Amino acid sequence: MDFDDERPQQQVTGVVIITLPPSDNPSFGKTITAFTLTNDVLPQSLTTQEPDQVLPTTRVVSSPPPSSQSPQLGFSFSGFFSENPRKLLGFLGVSLFALLLYSSCFSSTFVELKNSNDNDDDDKPQSFIFPLYHKLGAADLELKLGRFVDVVDKENLVVSINGGAMETKMVNKLVAANSVVMPVRGNVYPDGLYFTYMLLGNPQRHYFLDIDTGSDLTWIQCDAPCSSCAKGANPLYKPTKVNIVASGDSMCMEVQKNQKPQICETCQQCDYEIEYADRSSSLGVLAKDKLHLVTPNGSITNLDVVFGCAYDQQGILLNTLSKTDGILGLSKAKVSLPSQLASKGIINNVVGHCLATDVASGGYMFLGDDFVPNWGMSWVPMLGSPLIEFYHTQLVKINYGSSSLSLGAKDSDKARVVFDSGSSYTYFTKQSYAELVSSLSEVSELGFIQDASDPTLPVCWRAPFPIRTIMDVKKYFKTLTLQFGSKWWIISKKFHIPPEGYLIISFPVMQKKGNACLGILDGSNVHDGSTFILGDISLRGQLVVYDNEKQKIGWGPSGCGKPSRFKSLPFFEG
Predict the structure, then answer these.
(1) What confidence tier does 76 reach under pLDDT thresholds 50, 70, 90?
(2) Is position 223 annotated as part of the catalytic site?
(3) Which member of 52, 140, 210, 212 is catalytic?
């Protein structure tokens, strides 16, 4: 093959590759990449002794030919490819495949990169990070997904005014630009609950709240007086008459919008009742008080927020409230705390949480978008519904290892998945759950015996060796993979649930060694029976973000020790 520089000059040859966005998500935009092959002779002032380059770029660039002073570097890509068309086609094919692979795996880098100078904008909505703690001493299974129901018996609220101050311990805070950072703790078993705190009232008092992306309204146990309340972590919230929200308030109409229309000309309060998927309930009235948030300069901002003054709790809530004071509603509803803050321009309506797998740590949650990573996240669109405020998206496939499981939904080709931080465990549809349990029976060949005497969860195994942690049995189980967007593996978004994301270790009474129990339950009687619910056990080890501004849900692996912008997190006192 002759690479002599005396041969006739080649014409510029260019190749442009245009990658169109997925049909189901046109917001991703298109990617344009141009390749140029040339031997054009440039002016002497621009020539170098570098060999020809094939440059992937977004604009056409011509590279100079090799200098005659360095004949040993005189290799020409254009000449080589013009005489080897098969190699040219092969090269372009490999390049196109690599580009598609990169864009499918890291598409968020094309659309999610932010301007690093955004933090310098004083008018930008702020972000707030809250701590998460595990609740000690309760092994009750939680399943929230609350909904408002009609209040059957309305009674006038009796408010006793008490201006006495209460001494409280403060919480250390680490403040950064446009954000508030507080520590996080938590685990799934035996505690089954992650919670944070709010500073509320005047004088300010802190209340521990179960974080729940499946609940609309934030509520606190309330002395109004209280007819059925658990002995929580802190004294009951005691409202004054000025705290009670009137029945004509816009937030009251939002809470009662799906209830039967009722005329009450003399009502001086806004009654509500919430019923949860685990058949527990909470009855109360809406109240308004000051929420205290720490600003970047360390000062405290006082904001009026509406929440529930809950004076009658029934069911499992009475057990789970032994170390908490209520629930922090984080759904898409207008009455939720993030929606209220966003309506005031305090934050962009973005919620994120990171639940640590390490029992010694809990994780963190944040409100606002300052702590959303610029890359490394998988994003899927939220499903919209005027009657459903849960965070849910569409599932197209699920695998246990390499074996496919049926979705078991009404539409066999797809199913809905709800991300619910208020549920301790994960729920599959009846058919999918049955197939999963059947697939897991293969561990019996390794000496695992199903232990029906263990009441911890419906399916538990006794191993042929002592079990202390999940790591002792992890290698005998396979990873679950939830697939979103497309059934084609290479272009789909995947949520991986390793064995530690669906197993717990129980220690039955009178046994010295633990059992491995399945933390995925039959959801045939939960919600509509055809929905998958991802609870805390499967959300651990992931930063999960609910972007209500862009209507999408994202996740990415994380140790959940601290947000990336902070060197360390402070710790809760006492």
Answers:
(1) very low
(2) no
(3) 212
Query: What's the rounded Cα separation, in Å, for the pair 401 and 406?
Result: 14
Query: Looking at this protein, which amino acid is placed at residue 215?
Result: S
Instruction: Please name every residue paired with 381 in a beta bridge, in sequence order, or none if there are none.
Output: 552
273: CB partners within 8 A, 6+ apart: 148, 149, 150, 151, 152, 281, 282, 283, 284
> How are beta strands 326-329 and 350-355 bridged, if at all?
unpaired
Catalytic residue among 312, 369, 420, 522: 420
370-557: CATH architecture = Beta Barrel (2.40)
Note whether 179-367 and 370-557 share their fold. Answer: yes
Give the start-to-end residue ranges of the domains of the chain.
179-367, 370-557
Retrieve residue 540's tokens. Answer: 């651990």
Residue 101, pLDDT score: 57
Does 150 qualify as catalytic in the annotation? Answer: no
> At residue 253, does pLDDT exceed 50?
yes
Q: Is 24 left (phi over 0), alpha (psi -120 to 50) or beta?
A: alpha
Calpha distance 301→293 (Å, rounded): 5
Instruction: Assign a CATH topology to domain 179-367.
Output: Cathepsin D, subunit A; domain 1 (2.40.70)
For the stretch 203-239, pLDDT in tens is 899 999 999 999 999 999 999 999 999 988 899 999 9
| CA 123/CA 345 separation, integer angstroms | 9
Whole-number Å distance between alpha carbons of 380 and 122: 31
